[in-house]
Write a structure and sequence with these properties.
Length: 280
């Protein structure tokens, strides 16, 4: 029987570059545990849940636009709310910006509406939530889902068709490696990608006005190179770990903002004691 390929998710490329050990504990948890390490269970952050709700509402709206269907704002709001309720039921990590379910739902709908209001007419979608994958050799597969592939009207920098990704959160981060991964995978399937663009909307408290979304364009060449280099390190690191079972096959980053018991399943376990304050 042929072994299933090891899947590298395109969306994981930026986080792998931040801390390879934390991301390994998430992405290949079963392998790490089979090697004899016990990992912690961590809840999902409310910011991630709100991001999922924002994506769900926008997927509904742009898919309806692509199909030529009417958009019902009640359905738009319901799509935004559902992932939040599901995440809360499974266990959530709240923060000072989003303190309860009612606030989270309101924030999510505001975020989705801000992007739809600014880009609903400007984005001409060609594909929505398009699954793309490509063989990386050595039993590895790169896989991702592109939020929107299409054109953005009214921006002279973005000529032709490209990859469009929504991002939310209290801080806008650098995600070039993710967009390079989408571009590489799309091109491997004969899909034309001329650029990548991130549309970011900030998560703010419910009493504050929703900031306008920010468009951040990325050149494919540099993003693709970065994605390719991270991919090669993932393949090398995981291959080394499979042979040795040694945690140091994955370089930790104790300086990461997410190095904490809240966000890392490896934190404080035998798989990772590299964080500050750990004395045996």
């Amino acid at each position: 029987m042929t072994e299933a390929p090891t899947v590298i998710r395109v969306s994981s490329l930026p986080s792998y570059a931040d801390c390879t050990r934390r991301d390994a504990a998430r992405a290949w948890r079963s392998e790490v545990e089979k090697a004899g390490y016990t990992l912690r269970q961590t809840g999902r952050s409310i910011g991630a849940a709100i991001g999922s709700g924002t994506h769900a509402a926008l997927e509904y709206a742009f898919r309806a636009k692509l199909d030529g269907d009417e958009i019902a704002m009640s359905d738009f709001s319901d799509r935004a709310e559902a992932p939040i309720k599901e995440a809360i039921a499974e266990g959530i990590i709240w923060d000072d910006t989003s303190r309860n379910e009612a606030d989270a739902v309101r924030q999510c709908i505001k975020q989705a509406r801000s992007i739809w209001g600014e880009y609903g007419d400007r984005i001409e979608p060609e594909a929505i939530e398009e699954r793309v994958e490509a063989s990386l050799g050595d039993g590895f597969l790169l896989r991702g889902h592109i939020d929107v592939r299409g054109r953005i009207v009214g921006d002279a920098r973005l000529v032709g068709s490209g990859v469009i990704d929504y991002k939310t959160g209290t801080v806008q981060r650098a995600n070039a490696f993710q967009y390079g991964g989408y571009s590489l995978t799309a091109k491997a399937n004969g899909i034309t990608v001329n650029w990548a663009a991130e549309i970011y909307t900030k998560r703010v408290g419910v009493t504050k006005p929703q900031p306008d979304p920010v468009l951040a364009p990325y050149a494919c060449k540099e993003a693709e190179r970065g994605a390719w280099e991270v991919i090669q390190r993932i393949k090398s690191d995981l291959t080394t770990f499979r042979a040795s079972g040694e945690p140091w096959a994955f370089l930790p980053n104790p300086n990461s903002m997410n190095c904490s018991d809240k966000y890392c399943p490896a934190w404080g376990t035998k798989f990772c004691k590299a964080h500050k304050g750990e004395i045996e």
